[in-house]
Amino acid sequence: MKKIWNKERAPEWGMLALVFLLVLAWSLTAPKGGGPDEPMRYDVAKYLYEHPGKLPHGEEESIRNATWGISYAFYPILSYMISAVFMWIAGIFSTSEMVLLHAARLADVMFITIAAWFVIQAGKKLFGREKGLFFSSLVIFMPGFLYMGTYVNTDSLALMAAAVILYAWVCYLEEGWSWKNCVLLAVGMGICFLSYYNAYGWILWSFFFFCLTVLLCMEKPVRERWKFLFSRGLVIAGITILLAGWWFVRNYVIYDGDILGRNASTLCAELYAKDAYKPSVHVTPAKLGWSLKDFFLYQDPGWPHNWLVMVVVSFIGLFGKFDIYMPETASKIYILFVAVGILGVLLMIREFYWHRRSVTVQKTSVNGEKVKIKTVRCSREWSKKGFFNLMMLASLVTPVILFIDYAYFNDNQAQGRYIMSAVYPVMYFAACGYGKLLERFVKNEKIRIWFYRISSGLWILGAVLVYLRVIIPAYAA
Predict the structure, then answer these.
(1) CB within 8 A of 426, min separation 6: which ones?
(2) How far is it, in rounded angstroms, from Cα 163 to Cα 456?
(3) Residues 209, 393: contact at Cβ < 8 Å?
């Protein structure tokens, strides 16, 4: 107990408690339909609550939306299953519709809180105490991140799964691929499979990170590395399949081999959607023949910005049914602060290199003038931190590419929640960038520490003010 509750960990527990209370209060404040498509998502959770032990078919008429002609039961429903458990517990005391809705949202509150815990632990291992809490604050008190826990959705579960995977990667840097870290990675991937497709990049890059670090970074004979790869890799795959495989087998059976259910969803929409919303007639940038430039710069009459800026703004924080904005100045401050940190990454380019490098600087005299000579030496040893940085970069880019592809070819939406799983690498690189900038321009270590403390405090205060000054007035109006 002393390890858990010692004074050194008080800030961690304080941050975690604040995340839970803030997200819980926000979820209780929000009315019905407090997020994009929440009624459709809640319908699946309610069906599971009303039909214990029965999983709905995607075409189930009672949950099929009359406009779009589909239901969210085509997609992974683990999040809704857990919401149904909370609804069942709440239903013992009251069957009021609002009580059941808030109970369903409680699952998302818990997902974000658990994600926050893993982010805090990962930050501490990556950066140490002060900078680690700075990184954690950037992630878990970003308004867009908190918002994911305030309504019924699957994004919050994806964020939790990605946080578990991130923590497993970070633990590897410190301890290697121990059995604990392998199981942790498998659990994160299993949950991720059952959350949200746009987060699947974390699964893909976990495979590459595990294989590359085992085969190239282990200090063992080649034969033993391959043996280790297959023995532990098969355990990771086995646990992942055990956790998530049932869903895809079920889809294969009931949707005629469509394991993801996406083609089945499209066919269902073609059958039951209103004429203007059928996939065959739905207007997309691809059907209009737009270039990517036209697409990025397109501004819908109802948007205050073009598509690209809308995605960035909504990633940082756009609420309700994506119609509740922070003050524009606040959004600009958030974006500018993160952008400066990202620019600082230019000072750590060598840390993306997959071979270990050493840099020496020598002072010498040339023609009577003192000059510095920098020598960069590359060893044959592979750098696990270099692989980690590359995988984090890939985990940032992947959801962005998937989202652009979806929006361009299927549905022109400018919602930052589609790339929310990139929040961890974005803030990781922002924290690294600020670290490099401070090391370069601020020599006093105490000043650097106070920068992290003050910035963290202001970032946390910003999240609280968003709830008090933006959310409450918007819903009270």
Answers:
(1) 338, 342, 396
(2) 20
(3) no
pLDDT in tens, 96-152: 999 999 999 999 999 999 999 999 999 999 999 999 999 999 999 999 999 999 999
d(CA 159, CA 82) in angstroms, rounded, equals: 15
Length of the chain: 477
For residue 325, give the 3-state DSSP assignment.
strand
Mind listing the pLDDT tens digit for each residue in 68-100? 999 999 999 999 999 999 999 999 999 999 999
One-letter amino acid of 362: Q
- Quote the CA–CA distance of 225 and 342 in Å, as a whole number: 36
Amino acid at 413: Q
**Helices and strands, counts by H and E, the chain:** 20, 4
The Cβ of residue 283 has, within 10 Å, a number of other Cβ atoms equal to 10
Enter the pTM of the model: 0.93
Give the Cα separation of 271 and 134 in Å (integer): 50
- Which residue is it, tokens 């109006």? 477
Q: How far apart are CA 70 and CA 255, in angstroms?
A: 14
322: left (phi over 0), alpha (psi -120 to 50) or beta: left
List residues bridging with 375 in a β-sheet: 360
